Amino acid sequence: MSMSGHDIKLEVCVDSIASAFAAESGGASRVELCSALGEGGLTPTVGTLKTLKDSFTLPIYCMLRPRRGTDFLYNEEEMQAILTDMELLREHGADGFVFGALNPDRTIDANKCRQVMQQAGGLPVTFHRAFDLTDQKRMHEHVELLRELGFKRILSSGFRPSAAEGADCLAQLIAKHHRDIIIMPGAGIKVANLEEILTVSRCLEFHASAMDTASEDYTAPTTTRMECDVTMGKQDIDPYYGTNANVVRKMVTIANALSFH
């Protein structure tokens, strides 16, 4: 138990009902609900959210990302779709949202963020890893902007492919801004590198998919590969690895053993 009484919270990103329940039983604090994590996570269906809300006890933050791609440039129709999704997801029990929008020069699109904050109706909103595509030299200014816009959290790998590589940068962001906004490390966090990431960054929350592959001893995939020549998309060639409750439990145990604050 952390001496401060602030246990470091784990948010698990999930794209299936089974993964959500695995996150819950492993001791996660919250889930980020998406569809298609193979695409980096897209907006989840209302049916999935509504079904989960019947018996799920954790807060559910819903991704708002209407299509694949890492430009995070949305036109008016796409924004209309995002705001409509928000309204429907909110009506069916979303506890928060996850969003990010950029301008063509890779600065934060404050106007689109304002539209989303307005539609959120007071629910917490996280700015996702679009942050990692912005100019690292302006990172403090961008964090300030996101705080002023009303975001409660920023999900970041510290401008690197993984949070382990970006841990020093995340530590700088957290040291400077931790009183105003939660900086949540995410990307490539595994059981093996978690303790170092938590120790270096001194974060209060972190984000992981906690799949079988994030542990040293992962088991067989949770869906069987169809023995046929038909594929449903490029991700079909990979087995589907869902969230594993044991991996979640290991991560939560590591986080609970550390106390910095």
From TrEMBL:
GO terms for molecular function: copper ion binding. Gene3D superfamilies: Copper homeostasis (CutC) domain. InterPro entries: CutC-like, CutC-like_dom_sf. Belongs to the CutC family. This is Copper homeostasis protein cutC homolog. It comes from Drosophila madeirensis (Fruit fly).
